[in-house]
Amino acid sequence: MTNRIKSVDNLDFKGKKALIRVDFNVPLDEHQNVTDDTRIRAAVPTIEKILKDGGSVILMSHLGRPKDGPVDKYSLRHVVSNLQKLLGKPVKFAPDCIGDEAKNLSAGLQPGEVLLLENLRFYKEEEKGDEGFAEKLSKLGDIYVNDAFGTAHRAHASTAVIAKFFNTKATGYLMLSELENADKVLEKPERPYTAIMGGAKISDKILIIERLLEKVDNLIIGGGMSYTFSKAKGGTIGDSLCEEDKLDYVLELMKKAEEKGVKIILPLDTVISKAFANDAEQGLAIAGQIPDGWMGLDIGPETRKLFAEIIKSSKTILWNGPMGVFEMSSFLHGTVAVAEAIAEATQAGSFSLIGGGDSAAAVNKFGFGDKVSYVSTGGGALLEHMEGKVLPGVAALIP
Ligand SMILES: Nc1ncnc2c1ncn2[C@@H]1O[C@H](COP(=O)(O)OP(=O)(O)OP(=O)(O)O)[C@@H](O)[C@H]1O
Ligand SMILES: O=C(O)[C@H](O)COP(=O)(O)O
């Protein structure tokens, strides 16, 4: 399918303005500093190719999930200095993604120059996939490039709708490499194939887990989502994360897995804490036996051993979502143990694919980024792609 899509490599951008959809949805700290620039870094080769050809670049992205118009917290202004450093040149900023100022700034852009537009999601039309909004955006550039693999699963104005307003549209290098690496796992995964799921966005991922049952041999569940499984099985989970309305669904899922011969592996023990804080009183509990007033914030040592054994005996590994609150030093051990086991398996010849903003950040933070096969910039996008779906942002590029 990807062979029907043009890549930036097939195009000459001399004298052209490329409107590039990037995914600069990056984590920011409380001072609005970028804490992980992986996604910005990943967009650089495409930008540089276009500039080198003698073209100019207009970048558009979303940041976070603003609900009600512009808010400084979600302004893309916060990524400008990171981008300037990575490109080694100034980047102009348009304080709105449409309107006169954006139009004038893009019209005045000279070859070799870069303009970043303000957050697309400051307009609700973006997520609605509004045609009028997409058309206004399309007026800013001559060629449309989509390099936002991380957002390719969203059928939004700037990903799925805008492409039809362009005669020339192409994937960027990042999108291409993401699709190629994911296809290595999708097409003929060497078995055993193990997926490891964790993180906090339970309802986002539970449906995807069901579809993964068609593909994998083992499904390891850790992190915040494991407590919903634990409770569904009749365990007590104290104040741990739980989606009460998914309990029946999780039971059904476990039954389906059994029928399909897929092993679901849940934690054996869990690191518990009196509060969501690094220095709160801590303890260890058997999974499903968390006392009232405590919450599970990481997998325990027995679980680390069990998960590592399964990972090391797998030939294909897909990981999305940390095993605990790895941002706090007391609860990072589970995530480190899984990253370490994946690195060892990769060293021994297995193929490993890691996705998810936080999972990618964790892998890099703990120094395993170059010890795994591929770190995707996609979270939900990677998982939906791994289900075998053609993502809307990719479908829109098919001529
Ligand atoms: N037991 C837990 N309790 C509370 N939060 C948890 C727990 N385990 C993990 N987390 C949190 O989950 C967050 C990551 O979840 P998330 O689902 O966003 O993963 P991700 O890798 O970013 O994937 P994606 O990009 O697909 O959403 C981290 O901030 C981590 O602190
Ligand atoms: O971080 C992501 O997964 C993408 O940028 C998409 O963001 P969203 O989940 O808010 O649509």
Keywords:
binds adenosine-5'-triphosphate, 6-stranded parallel sheet, binds 3-phosphoglyceric acid, Rossmann fold, about 35% helix, 17 strands, about 400 residues, kinase, globular
Write a compact overview of the structure shown.
The protein is of the alpha/beta class. 36% of the residues lie in helices and 17% in strands. The chain has 2 domains: 2-176, 3-Layer(aba) Sandwich (Rossmann fold), CATH 3.40.50.1260; 188-386, Rossmann fold, CATH 3.40.50.
Average of pLDDT: 95
> Could you give the count of β-strands?
17
Strand proportion, as a percent range, falls in 15-25%
Shape: globular
CATH superfamily name of the largest domain? Phosphoglycerate kinase, N-terminal domain
Supply the CATH class of the largest domain.
Alpha Beta
What ligands does this structure carry?
A: adenosine-5'-triphosphate, 3-phosphoglyceric acid
The CATH architecture category of the largest domain equals 3-Layer(aba) Sandwich
Cα-based radius of gyration, to the nearest Å = 22 Å
DSSP helix count? 15
Strand order of the largest sheet: 3-4-2-1-5-6
Q: Which regions contain 5 or more consecutive residues with pLDDT less than 50? A: none
Helix content: 25-40%
Largest sheet: 6 strands, parallel
| C-alpha termini separation | 11 Å
Total domain count: 2
**Do you know the CATH topology of the largest domain?**
Rossmann fold
Category from helices, strands and their pairing: alpha/beta
Enzyme class: transferase
InterPro entries: Phosphoglycerate_kinase, Phosphoglycerate_kinase_N, Phosphoglycerate_kinase_sf
Pathway: Carbohydrate degradation; glycolysis; pyruvate from D-glyceraldehyde 3-phosphate: step 2/5
EC number: 2.7.2.3
